[in-house]
Structure formats: C-alpha cells, structure tokens
Amino acid sequence: MTIKPLIILPDPVLRQLSKPVETVDADIRRLADDMLDTMYDAPGIGLAAIQIGVPRQMLVIDVSKEGEDKQPQVFINPQILRSSDERSVYEEGCLSIPDYYAEVERPATITIQYVDRDGKQQTVEADGLLATCLQHEIDHLNGVLFIDHISKLKREMVIRKFTKAAKTRGAKAI
C-alpha cells in the first residue's frame, strides 16, 4: 500500500464537503488500505479521506491500545443517527493540525450507520474514545475541524500560527 501526504491546516481542502461513495469496489478498498497505512505511519487513530485530498465520505479508525493487536475499521458514508444528551470531554489532536491539542466536549454516545469495506450496511453504537474519534472524523467529511469546537480566540491563534508556517513553506491558505 501507499502512504499518502497529509493535508495540513490552513489548506482550504480541509473545508471541502466530501461526496458520498457510490460503489465499494477495488479502488475504494485500495484507498482504505492507503488511508490505514497513512494513519498508522503518522501515527494516528483516525483519518478521513479529505485529509489526504480525497473528498469522499470515508474514514478509517483504530482505537486499539498500544501493545494490542491492530483493530482497523473502515467507515464509508457514515451518518450519525443518534447522539446522547450526556457529554464527554477528550483532549483531541488532528493529523492535519500537528502538535496542537485541545479539550473538546461532544456527545458521550452515538449511533452511526455506515457501509463497511465489503459494501454491507452496518449500524454501531459507540461510546468513549471510539465515539469521540468517529465524531471528529465525521466532522472532517463536513469541512469541520476540531478547532471549530474551541473558543474563537484559541481557534484564531491556531489558524494564525499555521497560516504563518504555511507561508514559510509556500502553501495555500484558507
């Protein structure tokens, strides 16, 4: 498989809306494998296709603990069906916003519907780290970043920092 370059803030690609995957075929499964290789190499626990420049509703996750066997999961066209009123707070980071972390409050439990890598419709109820990770990655599919869930002041500071770094690299800005 292939490790793909990550799209980094402030690249406007991160704000694009992802389109549904029409058919789960060999190309989509290859993309899933490339996304998993990219995520593991980074290293991270979740990756949306848009983070490698592919605007498709697809994400990969592995929330297994260090020392455990890998448990890669592929979610195609994921949709949140239900969210709990109960909230939880996790310190989140993002492969597209390297070395920045912030506490984000989200629903503690969610139920999602998605298509798996075999093209079969699935439903899963998630809590804990999996629920947080799924919400974070589904946000990416809608052009939303985890920094959109923190205070405006902190968000603007992060965007300024990454915009300045991008200018130094000669990258595109939001």
TrEMBL record:
<keyword id="KW-0648">Protein biosynthesis</keyword>
<comment type="similarity">
    <text>Belongs to the polypeptide deformylase family.</text>
</comment>
<dbReference type="InterPro" id="IPR023635">
    <property type="entry name" value="Peptide_deformylase"/>
</dbReference>
<keyword id="KW-0479">Metal-binding</keyword>
<keyword id="KW-0378">Hydrolase</keyword>
<protein>
    <recommendedName>
        <fullName>Peptide deformylase</fullName>
        <ecNumber>3.5.1.88</ecNumber>
    </recommendedName>
</protein>
<feature type="active site">
    <location>
        <position position="137"/>
    </location>
</feature>
<dbReference type="GO" id="GO:0046872">
    <property type="term" value="F:metal ion binding"/>
</dbReference>
<feature type="binding site">
    <location>
        <position position="136"/>
    </location>
    <ligand>
        <name>Fe cation</name>
    </ligand>
</feature>
<dbReference type="InterPro" id="IPR036821">
    <property type="entry name" value="Peptide_deformylase_sf"/>
</dbReference>
<dbReference type="Pfam" id="PF01327">
    <property type="entry name" value="Pep_deformylase"/>
</dbReference>
<keyword id="KW-0408">Iron</keyword>
<dbReference type="GO" id="GO:0042586">
    <property type="term" value="F:peptide deformylase activity"/>
</dbReference>
<dbReference type="GO" id="GO:0006412">
    <property type="term" value="P:translation"/>
</dbReference>
<feature type="binding site">
    <location>
        <position position="140"/>
    </location>
    <ligand>
        <name>Fe cation</name>
    </ligand>
</feature>
<comment type="function">
    <text>Removes the formyl group from the N-terminal Met of newly synthesized proteins. Requires at least a dipeptide for an efficient rate of reaction. N-terminal L-methionine is a prerequisite for activity but the enzyme has broad specificity at other positions.</text>
</comment>
<feature type="binding site">
    <location>
        <position position="94"/>
    </location>
    <ligand>
        <name>Fe cation</name>
    </ligand>
</feature>
